[in-house]
Amino acid sequence: MASLVAYDDSDSEAETEPAGSFDATGQTKDTSGVARPPEKDFASGTLDVPKARVQPTKHGSCEDPGDHRLPLAQLGRSDRGSCPSQRLQWPGKEPQVTFPIKEPSRSSLWTSHVPASHIPLAAARFKQVKLSRNFPKSSFCAQSESETVGKNDSSFQKKKCEDCVVPYTPKRLRQLQALSTETGNSKEMEPQGPPAGRAPAPLYVGPRVSEFIQPYLNSHYKETTVPRKVLFHLRGHRGPVNTIQWCPVLSKSHMLLSTSMDKTFKVWNAVDSGHCLQTYSLHTEAVRAARWAPCGRRILSGGFDFALHLTDLETGTQLFSGRSDFRITTLKFHPKDHNIFLCGGFSSEMKAWDIRTGKVMRSYKATIQQTLDILFLREGSEFLSSTDASTRDSADRTIIAWDFRTSAKISNQIFHERFTCPSLALHPREPVFLAQTNGNYLALFSTVWPYRMSRRRRYEGHKVEGYSVGCECSPGGDLLVTGSADGRVLMYSFRTASRACTLQGHTQACVGTTYHPVLPSVLATCSWGGDMKIWH
């Protein structure tokens, strides 16, 4: 460095205190002890040079010769040619002093979730240095700092608001999330099943008969009375409960099967204790349908993962596993041959499976998109299927009668009103069956060809509103029970079609109702909210 020439400017002012000095390597030394290149920080506005290299200036603007400090030239002179090509530049606005830190980069305030009152280490050092130097703060500096702080706060709040934006969630899902939170925080701990794909633990199904069921096994079923009180309130599912069914073996009918959209199905002791006996997590998607085998020791389940499983309760093993071509919504065992079952779902066809061979033995195809329910008639020689086919001008194919052996359609002109039927139920004594309709009423049909609908009896007063609301007859056939989309449970007299009772059952849609096969006036209901109630 041969010489340093300082260019004076009338607008520039010399600082009164030293800010840095050149060392042997050509870098400036700051009071904070951090080295930085001389061409990148000239906030102090002065340069210290050795005494041997001080050159007198023409303008005589240097301060005390003993200090050897020269003011910096300011950018913006009109005569640019008079300045050297590599001249020192004075910034247009007074910058803030920054001090780099030789530490690893820290995560931002947002990602690290540090409180807003926390001051980073770099800011603390900067604050200490400024206080130690006692620089007078001009109005321009104060204004720029306030603008910077306001801008940082506004950008932080904007980023926080953007990160807090939650996508729209339907009302049903919001209610399910709230319900799952309450279920997770509840003190009652239900036994959880193994992860999907693993065999569940064996469930001991002994010969012991419930003390409440024993007195009714050897006697004729008494007249069904209307239940009034809640015996048990069963909570354990983390999603809507789709179906419920009592065990068909009378001596083991204290067990209740429930399926849910939370990918599980459970077995409960719904008569003695109200506790969950076992949870089965065999499916990777929602379990839409499950049925007890007529022997009472096995459960057939199907779900939206296209999988079919037949589980032995006593050993916990899967006796049969199959994969369907469609999502499964309904399953029914053949009433005579228990090794055969029908499967329907989101497809234009239904399939009959043989458990012994593990293969499809017969298919039933129609011009539909979904099968809603299946009901066997005449000891299995015929069956009915309810579908989603409903046009504006006609309602053919809404209920179809099939011949089980030949796969031929017996009739598709059964229900002539423009409503779909989400569920079907057979009367235990009369040759009739019930169809739940989306017209908010129960329709009564004959089980004998041509399957005429009764015009005189119609059971009205509940709401369906698109839910798969189930219906059923009492074991004696005197009462009909159905759920409702508003959470109510309604019972009708079979003979007169008048309303016998209304129960305020659930806060959300009641989608399943079933009478106990032995105990009089014991009723089980389930809801879209994920809970079940046992009434007596």
UniProtKB/TrEMBL annotation:
- Coiled coil region boundaries: none
| InterPro entries (alphabetical) | WD40/YVTN_repeat-like_dom_sf, WD40_repeat_dom_sf, WD40_rpt, WD_repeat_protein
Q: Keywords, A to Z?
A: WD repeat
Where is there biased composition of kind Basic and acidic residues?
60-70
Region described as Disordered:
1-92
Return the WD repeat spans.
234-269, 280-321
Pfam families membership: WD40
- What name is this protein filed under? WD repeat domain 25
